[in-house]
Amino acid sequence: MVQKFDKPILTPSQTAGPYVHIGLVPEACGIEDVPFETLGREIAGPEAKGDRIKITCRVVDGGDLPLRDCLVETWQADAAGIYPGQEGADPAVSGFGRMPADFTTGEITFETIKPGAIALSGDRKTPPHISFWIFARGINHGLHTRMYFPEDDLSGDPLLARIEHRDRIATMVAEATGPGEYRFEIRLQGAGETVFFDI
Amino acid sequence: MTGRLIPREAGIHPPLFTPAYKTSVLRSPQRALIAFDSSPSEETGPTFGHMKLGALDNDLLLNYARPGTSAIGERIIVHGRLLDENNRPIPNALIEIWQANAGGRYRHKKDGYLAALDPDFGGCGRTITGEDGSYAFRTVKPGAYPWPNGPNEWRPAHIHFSIFGHSFGQRLISQMYFEGDPLIARCPIAQTIPDKAALDRLVAALDMSETKPMDAIAYRFDIVLRGHRQTHFENRPEGM
Ligand SMILES: [Fe+3]
Fold first, then answer.
1. CB spacing of B83 vs A16 below 8 angstroms
2. Which of A98, A109, A126, A118 shows the shortest CA–CA distance to A53?
3. What percent of chain B has pLDDT over 90?
4. Which residues share a beta bridge with A56?
5. Contact B86/B227 with Cβ under 8 angstroms?
6. ipTM for this prediction
7. Chain B residues within 8 A of A75 when measuring between CB atoms
8. What secondary structure letter does DSSP report for A83?
9. Which of B75, B107, B160, B229 is catalytic?
10. Contact residues, chain B, for A163 at CB < 8 Å
């Protein structure tokens, strides 16, 4: 016998289920007189520095159907690559987005500013990206991925360097569809399956 | 920023592919998740400690009720503490909940269960943890409800929880069950958790010490999020 660690056990995850909207985006599911406002609506206020961008995304299942009941949350840095809460962060950037898919099309559209590259230890940097967390009925633990931008050089990213199958990096790169407009498709399963992280 | 996150312990969270829970079959990645040490993108996160809450935000008995009345059902208090795995309280953190009413019906346009809606119950609430990580909600005990996973499948009574720590990498969504519910052992969603001790972490215990006589029964539900690595030795030159 040895001494026992007396560490609390992590609370395990469970699916958010089909009625997640009630708790997190109540106005989206037909609740009138919502007792409080939805969070994560404004990622970057009108005063925020940086280039304004518009992102349209879809989350697609292994049968090629878009998820029409999912939610995504996003987290990003400001235009200088500083996260809200860190010293010197742009006060007009909340960095946090929470968006439900459209109940008929499954599309999720949001506006923000393009984040800057993120400083790591030493003089290394991670190219601009937005972190995504996807949850829905049928997803037992929120799925974590990143969206990178097609115009950026991703070769120096230490995280992407860890991915052995280089062709999979493209699954995290948005497609430019117009000036300041991007499309990002997240494929949960099968051909072109998006890279998901355990970080 | 609060430093490197401790990697998630294996075997606690459910796997993503759990065929007994049928919707997971087409919604689970087949490739392995890519593991990596946390970076600022996961170590920072949205914080809500500054947020102004309404007086009834954590009181589901009243926050959707018409004046002078309250939601129908068994009145309960759900309370506990939010901790990290180093056993430290997580203060100023946002907890949001949603649930069915006492009959097992959700106020959601996609819920067609024949149980009645309660005009005085909305089913959502939120709160911010105190300095010691404590939180509390007042609500009704939700009913069990049927769902179409199998021909005769019933969810145990449960409250959905959405929890933020201070880092995006700590984000968690889960469900709280109630002590003594025989449906937990039969539920394909609860049973996605492979480890019995881990599933027990989702079952709130009856707590007579916090029960309000002639008013509401209390259940205690503590929540544990990932912690940050403790730095016993800092990398700095000698003598500084
Ligand atoms: Fe539910």
1. no
2. A109
3. 90
4. A109, A183
5. yes
6. 0.96
7. 41, 44-46, 168
8. -
9. B160
10. 34
Residue A98 near residue A38 (C-beta atoms within 8 A): yes
Alpha carbon distances (Å) from B161 to A115, A119, B62, B71, B193:
30, 33, 19, 20, 16
Query: Is the pLDDT at B100 greater than 90, yes or no?
Result: yes
Average pLDDT over residues A158-187: 95
Which has the closest alpha carbon to B201: B180, B226, B221?
B221
Residue B235's pLDDT is 57
List the 39-98 stretch of B: residues with Cβ below 8 A of A. 39-42, 44-48, 53-54, 56-57, 63-64, 83, 85-87, 94, 96-98
Task: Please name the amino acid found at residue A160.
Answer: L
Averaged over B105-133, what is the pLDDT?
96
> With an 8 Å Cβ cutoff, are A13 and B173 in contact?
yes
Using an 8 Å Cβ cutoff, are A49 and A113 in contact?
yes
What is the longest distance spanned by two Cα atoms in chain A? Answer: 65
Chain A / chain B CB contacts < 8 angstroms: 259
Sequence-distant (6+) residues with CB within 8 A of B169 are A144, A199, B5, B38, B42, B43, B45, B226
What residue ranges in A24-164 does DSSP mark as E strands? 52-60, 71-75, 96-100, 108-113, 118-119, 125-126, 129-135, 143-148
- Compute the Cα dihedral for A12, B198, B83, B42 and give only its sign: negative
Please give the single-letter amino acid code of residue B166: H
